[in-house]
Amino acid sequence: MRERSRARGWALQALYAWEMRGAEPETALRVLHDLAEDLRVSQENRFFAEVLVRIVSREQSRLDRLIQDQLANWRLERLSVIDRNILRVGAAEFLFVDDVPVRITIREMLRLGERYSTPESPRFLNGVLDAIARHAAPEKVAEGG
Asked: Which CATH class is domain 2-142?
C-alpha cells in the first residue's frame, strides 16, 4: 500500500498543475507524465497515479457535482485548488476503485491534506469525505469499509 500512498501524492500534484494550466481533460495525463519524468517517479507509483488522474479528468463534472452537493455553505470554486483536488481524488476512489475501503481512502486523503494544505484542512476534508462516502458509496460504508 505504500506505493499507492505515494501515487496519490503524485496524482494530487499532477492534478494541481493540471488545474492551474486550465484543466483540459486531454492534458491531464500529459501533465502527470511530465511530472513523473522530471521527478523520476517509479513505475509502481505511476500506474495508480495514472488511474486516479484519468478518472478525475474524465469524470470531473460528475465528481464536482457530487462534492458540491455535500458542501454546506461553500461553493466548490471557493475551495483551495489542493483541497478541491483532494476531494476529487477521494470521490473518485469511492466511486471507481473497488479494492480500497472507504476508511482507507479517507485516511489517505487526510494525510494529503496534512502534507499539502492548511492545518484546518484535514478536519474539513474529513467531514466532506464522510458525507460523500455516505451518499455515493453507501454499500462500501455499510460493509465497514
From this structure: mainly alpha
93-109 pLDDT, tens digit each: 999 998 899 999 999 99
The full set of domain ranges for the chain reads 2-142
The per-residue pLDDT for range 122-133, each reduced to its tens digit, is 999 999 999 999
**Confidence (pTM):** 0.89
144 CB-contact burial (10 Å; exposed 0-12 / middle 13-18 / buried 19+): exposed
